């Protein structure tokens, strides 16, 4: 007899979630905890991380901790990972999700904004993946890294201009494929989730005419819920996907089918 639900279980695993205090990251932290994982929530503000971790521990009966760092800061990332290992153990799963968007067309974008987006969205994803992989390899453990890409990795969004964001997400997608191949020999899988438009705070504040434009262009004519993105992350994080690495799962209500 097969155990289909059991293959999606994260029982016995420790998952690190960056940007885990809000939006998609918060939903993923709860889904992973609901699937049995202990969780380490990372974001920039310690109080927020600890608050979310304590709510998750209370609600799901797992061990959870909050660890503050800027994912773009190499020293901060290494310190946070050391603190996680000391408090909770070596993480088996990383949901590499922290990201920012500063809209702007190429002609007007401030170069400082460009560099900050690359630092958080690209350097941050690399530094976190490397920090987790190094610790897994040192222990001879397998693991699963799930990077947050976007449909913006492969298409040009309209009507807004977001050159730096699109470029950063394309880098995340190809980094995913590259690390997947590099780390096959270590049993570390690396995959990417690419959402379309998701109903998070990021999108709840965009001008009505832009949101309407997106919904007309999305065959589902609605935003994704954060739960619908979390399910995709759970597939990659769990042993349901043991032959899957270097893959991208697009969750976009058919947006990119057109
Ligand atoms: N909302 C969407 O429609 C959508 C679509 C595709 C991809 N994404 C991606 O999903 C991810 C999460 O976005 P969201 O919509 O949940 O928005 P969000 O703003 O709620 O989440 C971003 C999280 O990252 C954290 N963060 C930002 N910079 C950080 C840094 N330097 N160090 C540590 N943490 C940092 C924030 O505190 C926040 O918790 C992002 O990478 C985003 O690009 C979002």
Q: Would you spell out the secondary-structure blueprint of this structure?
A:
Layout: H1 4-7, E1 14-18, H2 23-34, E2 38-43, H3 46-60, E3 64-68, H4 74-88, E4 93-96, H5 111-139, E5 143-148, H6 163-182, E6 188-195, H7 201-204, H8 208-217, H9 226-237, E7 248-251
Parallel strand pairs: 1-2, 1-4, 2-3, 4-5, 5-6, 6-7
Helix pairs in contact: 2-3, 2-9, 4-5, 5-6
Bound molecules: nicotinamide-adenine-dinucleotide.
How is this structure best described in words?
The structure is a single chain. The protein is an alpha/beta fold. The protein has one domain: NAD(P)-binding Rossmann-like Domain (Rossmann fold). Helix content is 47%, strand content 15%. It has 9 helices and 7 strands. The chain has helices at residues 4-7, 23-34, 46-60, 74-88, 111-139, 163-182, 201-204, 208-217, 226-237, and strands spanning 14-18, 38-43, 64-68, 93-96, 143-148, 188-195, 248-251. Strands 3-2-1-4-5-6-7 form a 7-stranded parallel beta sheet, with helices on both faces. Strand 5, helix 6 (163-182) and strand 6 form a beta-alpha-beta unit. Helix 2 crosses helix 9 (226-237) and helix 4 runs parallel beside helix 5 (111-139). The longest helix has 29 residues, at 111-139. It is globular. The protein starts with a helix and ends in a 7-residue tail after the last strand. The model has no long low-confidence stretch (mean pLDDT 97). Nicotinamide-adenine-dinucleotide binds next to helix 2, helix 5 and helix 7.
Overall pLDDT, averaged? 97
Assigned CATH superfamily: NAD(P)-binding Rossmann-like Domain
Separation of the first and last Cα atoms: 41 Å
Shape: globular
Number of strands: 7
> In CATH, what is the class?
Alpha Beta
The low-pLDDT segments are none
What's the Cα radius of gyration? 18 Å
CATH topology tier name: Rossmann fold
How large a portion of the residues is in β-strands, by DSSP E?
5-15%
List of distinct ligands in this structure: nicotinamide-adenine-dinucleotide
The assigned structural class equals alpha/beta
The helix count comes to 9
| Strands in their spatial order, largest beta sheet | 3-2-1-4-5-6-7
Helix percent band: 40-55%
How can the largest sheet be summarized? 7 strands, parallel
Number of domains: 1
